Amino acid sequence: MGLYYFAVSSEERYTLYMDARYFAHHLYRDFCTYKALAKSESSAGFRAALLRMAEYAHEDYLFWRNLSPEKQFRVTKLEILFFKLLRKLLGRVFVARVLADRTKKIAKKYEASFGKISDPGLRRGLERALERELHKEKELVTQLEEGGVTFVGSIVLGVNDGLVELSGALVGFSFALHEHTLIASAGLITGVAASLSMASSAYMQARYEAAKNPMRAGMYTGVAYMAVVLMLVAPFFIFEDVYIALAVMFGVVFLIINALSFYGAILLERSFFRQAAELLIASVGVGMVAFIIGSLFRVFSGAPLF
């Protein structure tokens, strides 16, 4: 490697310095991350993939370290802890997506470096490193497919429908009934019935889609919907004042929208702001319609509005 390095021009040598330092640092970081995740990974398939990728990253790290002016690289414990928490809280599929995005960035950097390096030996080394990086990306994409990323649409459907439908229903119940336990009970009954209906619909739809397991699609949709039901109904069981309960419910809706948008933006590679805006507009729009219907009900029934 050293012969190739000293054979290049001074300008190319400086570029090589910068690129080699960058690659060595990022590959050492990836090596440490893969190895740490593999130690605590419960899925045998994902653990094996992580160990293979750690081996690739270590080989490429050694290659670039030989060319880098800097020889010692470190990864903070906080960064490793961050990925371990991601794995525990958001699951294997989410972590695989984040790692796949990192490999894409390094692969793009490799491709950009081809035009800067003329030495045949270094170009061969760069080609091998790029091949391994693309292989790592394939490994991670496989984990996404095997880990159930095809069912994320079912989860998003369940959460989205739960937010829009039940938040609207609870607003309507609040202005029609004005009694927190009645509102909570009506919301819970409506939510349970709707979650079962959504699960059945998702099951029937998945039967005509070859890539989906109908049982899992129905389960994911129903469970996601029911989780939203419990979170939105809870404030009405806790607070006697209907308006306080409504305010807390809208706070919960806002948090769920942001969490769902963030998860979807990372996992499905979509715009966070666009997804959050669409959900917020839908929830507020349905809530306004429900408010009008609930208010009209009280007007025509002779009950006071407030």
TrEMBL record:
GO MF terms held by the record: manganese ion transmembrane transporter activity
Superkingdom of origin: Bacteria
Gene Ontology biological process terms, A to Z: intracellular manganese ion homeostasis
Keywords: Membrane, Transmembrane, Transmembrane helix
Pfam families from the UniProt entry: VIT1
Any one Gene Ontology cellular component term annotated for this protein: endomembrane system
Lipid bilayer topology: Multi-pass membrane protein
Residue ranges of the TM segments: 182-205, 217-238, 244-267, 279-300
InterPro entries (UniProt xref): Ccc1_fam
Subcellular location: Endomembrane system
Protein name per the record: Rubrerythrin family protein
Native organism: Candidatus Lloydbacteria bacterium RIFCSPLOWO2_02_FULL_51_11
